[in-house]
Amino acid sequence: MTTYEAIIGMEVHIELQSKSKMFCGCSADFFGAPPNTHTCPVCLSMPGSLPVINEQAVAYTVMTGLALGSQIHSHNVFARKNYFYPDLPKGYQISQYELPLCTGGHIDLDVKGSQKRVRITRVHLEEDTGKLTHVAGGSLVDLNRAGVPLMEVVSEADIRSADEACAYVSKLRQIVRYLGVSSGDMEKGAMRCEVNLSLKPVDSEKWGTKVEVKNLNSFKAVRGAIACEIKRQTDVLESGGQVEQVTMGWDENKGKTALQRSKEEAHDYRYFPEPDLPPLNLKQSEIAELQAGLPELPAAKIARYIDEWALSLQNAELLAESRDRAEYFEAVVAAEKTSPTSAANWIIGEAFRLLNESGIAVADIKVSPADFARLIELVETNVINRLSGKEVLAEMWVRGQKPDAIVEARGLKQISDTGAIEEIVAQIIGDNPGPVAEFRAGKEKVIKFLVGQVMRQTRGKANPKVAEQIFRDKLQG
C-alpha cells in the first residue's frame, strides 16, 4: 500500500472592518441586521451606478501585506471576475488578478515544537458576495454582505498537515486582529477558508491533482475537511482511479466533503480590467506612512518579553496572544515599575481566571492597570499576603475600587510584628506537642501545619514567612 503526503495551500478570505462597503457608501456593519437593509444602487448593481474605491480598505490590505513581509505594488488594477451565482448581483465580482496590491511574504509557524515557514503568494482586495439561505422550495438571498471589503490571502502549497493548516490560519487571524483590520470572527463569517489539497506518494516529487474544498468557517471544519479529503483521495488512488480536479464543499452536519462542481481555471472567469475603475496608484510616501504606523506584532512582542523581561516562552505567548491582552500587561508593568515576572504571574494566574469566569473581554476589565500594579505592590511589600491579594482583586474586579481602600475597609493588612506573632506561636507550640515533636525529629513538612495554625488564628493576616522563622528559632534553637 502506497503512503501519501498531503500538499496543501490555503486561500483565506477576510472581511475588513471599514465603516462602508468596498465600492459604495453603505454601512459594512450588517451583522444581525434585517436582510437587504444595507444596500444601495451600487451594491445592488442597478443600471448606471458606478463604483468608488474604499481608501480605508486599501490601507488595511497594504498594512496586512507589510506585516506579512510582502512586496507592496504601487501600480495595481481591479478586474472583473466573471461568473454567475444568485448571490452575485452584477454577474461578476470586482477583484484583482494580474496586478494585485501585495505579492510574496510569509508566516512562520511553531507546530508541536517544529518550525515551519509558509510562503504567501499574494494578498489582494475584492468585494464580498451576498448570502444565500436555502429553504424548502427555493433559496433566499440577502445582499447586506454584497460589496463588503474582502481581503484574500493566498498561500503557496507549503502546508503538509491539518495541524499546520490550523496553525497557519490561527497566526493569520492573530496578525489581522493585532493590526485592527478585521475581527477575524469565523463564527460570524468574517474569516473564511478554502483548502487546496492534493496527494503525492512520499517517495515521489510529482504532485497529484488539486482539489479545492470550500465553506470552512471554523478550525474544526478546516481540520475535518483535510482529514476527510485525504481519506477520499487516498481511497480513489488505492482503488486504481484518478482524482478529478473539482470543487468540494464541506458539510458540517454530515462531517464530510461533497462535490459542488468541476474546478474552474483562471481563464474560465474571463478576467479583464474593471472599466469603471482607473488603475490604483499608491505613492511610496503613503506606503511608508502605513509602515511607520504598524503596531509591534506578536512575534516581536514575544521575543522582547523573553529577551528583555526574562519571561518564559509559554508566558510570553500567552500574554501576546491578543493586542489588548499585551497592552494591558505592559501598562501594569509600566504603572508602578512592577516586575514583569510578578505582573505576568498575577495576570496569567488570577486575571485570566477572572476573565474566564466573568466572560468579559480585556477591554471591559474594571481594574485599571495602575490599580492592578498597586495591588501587586501591596503583596510584594508584605502589606497584605497573597491570599488576601486574591480576595482584594476579586472585589476590585466587580466594583472597580482602589486596592488600598478595600484593604483598609476589610482590615486585611498583614501582621508582621514579631512580638504579636511570637505570643501566638508560643500558644500553638503548647497546644500541639505531637506535631512539635515530629518537627524536632526532622519532619520538615510539619512546619506548614504549624504556620497554618497561626494563619487560622489570625484569619490570614499574619505574615507566614515571619511566623515560620519564629517557629524555627524556637524549635531548632
How would you describe this structure to a colleague?
- The protein has 477 residues and is an alpha+beta fold.
- It has 3 domains: 4-289, no CATH class; 296-410, no CATH class; 418-476, Arc Repressor Mutant, subunit A, CATH 1.10.10.
- The chain is 40% helix and 20% strand.
- The protein has helices at residues 55-67, 162-179, 219-238, 284-292, 298-309, 313-319, 323-335, 340-358, 369-380, 386-399, 403-410, 418-431, 433-440, 446-457, 464-476, and strands spanning 4-15, 71-72, 75-76, 79-82, 92-95, 102-103, 106-111, 114-127, 131-135, 138-142, 149-155, 191-201, 211-216, 246-251, 256-262, 272-273, 280-281.
- Helix 5 (298-309) crosses helix 6 (313-319), helix 7 (323-335) packs across helix 8 (340-358) and helix 9 packs antiparallel against helix 10 (386-399).
- The longest helix has 20 residues, at 219-238.
- It is elongated.
- The protein starts with a strand and ends with a helix.
- The mean pLDDT is 92.
Total of helices: 15
Number of strands: 17
Average pLDDT, to the nearest integer? 92
Oligomer: single chain
Q: What is the C-alpha radius of gyration, as a whole number of Å?
A: 30 Å
Helical proportion, percent range: 40-55%
Task: Tell me the number of structural domains.
Answer: 3
Strand and helix map with partners:
Layout: E1 4-15, H1 55-67, E2 71-72, E3 75-76, E4 79-82, E5 92-95, E6 102-103, E7 106-111, E8 114-127, E9 131-135, E10 138-142, E11 149-155, H2 162-179, E12 191-201, E13 211-216, H3 219-238, E14 246-251, E15 256-262, E16 272-273, E17 280-281, H4 284-292, H5 298-309, H6 313-319, H7 323-335, H8 340-358, H9 369-380, H10 386-399, H11 403-410, H12 418-431, H13 433-440, H14 446-457, H15 464-476
Parallel strand pairs: 13-14
Antiparallel strand pairs: 1-11, 1-12, 2-6, 3-17, 4-5, 4-16, 6-8, 7-8, 8-11, 9-10, 12-13, 14-15
Helix pairs in contact: 2-3, 5-6, 6-8, 7-8, 7-9, 9-10, 12-14, 12-15, 13-14, 14-15
